[in-house]
Structure of Protocatechuate 3,4-dioxygenase subunit alpha:
Amino acid sequence: MSELAAGRPGGTTPSQTVGPYLSIGLTWDDGPYVVPEGTPGAFWIRGRLFDGTGAPVPDGMIETWQCDPDGRFDHPDDPRGAAPSSVPGFRGFGRSRTDAEGRWAVLTVRPGRVPDGTDGRQAPHLDVSVFARGLLDRVVTRLYLPDESNANAQDRVLNAVPAERRPTLVAAAGPDGLVFDIHLRGDDETVFFAI
C-alpha cells in the first residue's frame, strides 16, 4: 500500500496496466483475413510482437489498414471519394491477436500507391496499430514492402525517418509472404508515429 493510500503524505500509488483483455470480444475468427482465402495474389504477413526486454507479448493485438491494389479506399474519408475495390471480398482491415509466442498474421493483397498530399505518391504500405499490456493507447507504425525500393526511396514519410531506423519499417521476405516483427522498446524498437 502506498503512503498516500495509508493516509501518509507523499509516495505514489502503484501503477496498473490495461488488460490483458484484448482477446476477449475484440477479435473474431475471420479478423486476420483482409481478403478471403484463395484470392488471387493473396499472401500472409506474419510477425512477432516483443516487449522492451525482447520477450514475446502473448496478449497483444495487431490491426492493419490499407488501400486496395488500385490505391483506393472504399471509405468516405478518401479525398478522391469512396471506391469499391476491384478485389472481391477486400475489406482493407485486418485484426490478429498474438499467441503465446507473440505471433500474429494477416492474409492480404499488395496495396497500391496513394497520393501523398503534394504532387507525389506514397510507397505501398500498410498502417499498423499495436495494442498491448502496459499501453494506455495504441501505438501506430507502417509496414513497407521490401521489393519496392524505388517507391520507398521516394516516400516522404519513410524518408523523414533517420536512415538507420528505416529498416524497422520494412518487412522481410518470408516463406509464404512477408515477415514483420514489432519491437515495442529496446535496441530494435520499431519506429512509431504520433498521430
Remarks:
- The radius of gyration is 19 Å.
- The helical segments are 149-154, 156-159.
